Amino acid sequence: VEETEMSNSISVSYINTNESISIQNPTLMKIKSIEMFNVIGQSIFTVDEVKTETQTEIKTNKLSAGTYIIKLKTEFGLVNKKVLVNVSFVSVIHLLFHFSSIWIQFSINTI
């Protein structure tokens, strides 16, 4: 299998609402492991056992917004995919509520 063909047969995306990585593998290529890296090359997580399915979803811890690299080790070689993680609207609202409650508490304590 050529590198371009192998890379095009697997797609990877981040699902904000589920805080997970979604891997579409319509050709059922055997994926031996998955590793996620941040932009400075630090490994975020590794999955060593991956079921061969047309779609796989992997839960992640809360990730900061930014670009990440997903390295898939397949039966034919390595496939690297770039994933963009956006902060969801719900997360922003939760964060704003958290900071506003801290601000209110701070204001009350300083009066």
Q: What would your notes on this structure say?
A:
- The chain is an alpha+beta fold and 111 residues long.
- Helix content is 25%, strand content 41%.
- It is built from two helices and seven strands; from the N terminus they run αβββββββα.
Instruction: Estimate the helix proportion, in percent.
Output: 25-40%
Main sheet overview: 4 strands, antiparallel
Q: Secondary-structure element sequence?
A: HEEEEEEEH
Number of DSSP helices?
2
Q: How many DSSP E strands?
A: 7
Q: Mind telling me the C-alpha Rg?
A: 19 Å
Spatial order of the strands in the main sheet? 4-3-6-7
Q: Any descriptors?
A:
3-stranded antiparallel beta sheet, alpha+beta, 7 strands, 111 residues, 4-stranded antiparallel beta sheet, 2 helices, 25% helix
Task: Itemize the secondary structure elements and their pairings.
Elements: H1 3-8, E1 11-15, E2 20-24, E3 31-37, E4 43-47, E5 55-59, E6 66-74, E7 77-85, H2 89-110
Antiparallel strand pairs: 1-2, 2-5, 3-4, 3-6, 6-7
